[in-house]
C-alpha cells in the first residue's frame, strides 16, 4: 500500500468512525425511557406524575414533574427531553422519578 493510499484509507476510516459515533449518540439521545426499564423502576419513574405510587413516595406532589426538575434537559415546548440520570434517554415532560430536584 502506498503512502497516499494508506493516508486516504486512514482518513476514510477516521471519518467513518466519527460518523458512526455521532449516529450512535443521536440514537441513544432519542431513545425513550420506558417505565419498565430496570433503572426507571428502581427510581419509581412514571411518564405521568399523577400515576406515582403515593404510598411508596409520600413526599411526591403532583406539581413535581420533569419539566420542573433541575436535571431535565428538554426545551419548554418539547413533550420529552433527555435526563442524565437515565443516560440521556428521553423522559416525559410530565414524568417524575425519585431523583427529582426542584429547578433553581
Ligand atoms: Fe424527571 Fe428529574 Fe427524574 Fe430526570 S431526574 S426523570 S428529569 S424527575
Structural summary, described in words:
With 104 residues, the protein is mainly α. The protein folds into two domains: 1-30; 33-104, High potential iron-sulphur protein (High-Potential Iron-Sulfur Protein, Chain A, Irregular), CATH 4.10.490. It contains two helices and two strands; from the N terminus they run ααββ. It has a two-stranded antiparallel sheet. It starts with a helix and ends in a 12-residue tail after the last strand. The structure holds iron/sulfur cluster (SF4).
Key attributes of the depicted protein:
single chain; 104 residues; mainly alpha; High-Potential Iron-Sulfur Protein, Chain A; 2 domains; two-stranded antiparallel sheet; 32% helix; binds iron/sulfur cluster
Q: Could you spell the SSE succession in H and E letters?
A: HHEE
Q: Largest sheet, described in full?
A: 2 strands, antiparallel
CATH topology of the largest domain: High-Potential Iron-Sulfur Protein, Chain A
CATH class of the largest domain: Few Secondary Structures
- What count of domains describes the coordinates? 2
**How many distinct beta strands?**
2
Structural class of the helix and strand makeup? mainly alpha
Within CATH, the superfamily of the largest domain carries the name: High potential iron-sulphur protein
Number of helices: 2
Tell me the overall shape.
globular
Mean model confidence by pLDDT: 83
Strand proportion: 5-15%
**Hetero compounds:** iron/sulfur cluster
Which ranges are low-confidence, i.e. pLDDT below 50, for 5 or more consecutive residues?
8-23
Termini Cα gap: 59 Å
